[in-house]
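Weekly modeling sync, notes
Attendees: S.R. (lead), two postdocs, one rotation student

Agenda item 3: backlog of single-chain predictions. S.R. asked that every request posted to the team notebook include the full sequence so nobody has to chase files. The rotation student volunteered to paste the first one in as an example of the format we agreed on. Action items at the bottom.

Example entry:
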Amino acid sequence: MNDEVNSTEYHIQLTPLALEMLAAVKDRREQEKLRDRIDQLKIEPEKQGKALVDNLSGFRSIRAVGQRYRIVYKVEQDQVVVVVVGIGRRKEGDKKDIYAILEKLLDP
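Predicted structure, as returned to the notebook:
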């Protein structure tokens, strides 16, 4: 039985920065888990993770690889696309924290 209401499958796009961040993950098993988690965003991405605030308003974040990593993305509903903008570890207060990096790079 197909549920027509939830059948929309989103396309996934990774920005060059997100691709670079994914490639920088040295552990291949962790990299594969990240890829699998990104792939899960194809179905109802707006219901996954949490909405970010302040400088990252408009973006969402999901946890991956035992909650060590964050995948930050934006849902473009009109285009049925999920744009992954960053992948990294959450290290609150550290300059290598994924949110700190993205705030600097995405600041207009």
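Discussion: group reviewed the output briefly. The longest helix spans residues 28-39.
Action items: rotation student to repeat for the remaining queue; S.R. to check formatting next week.
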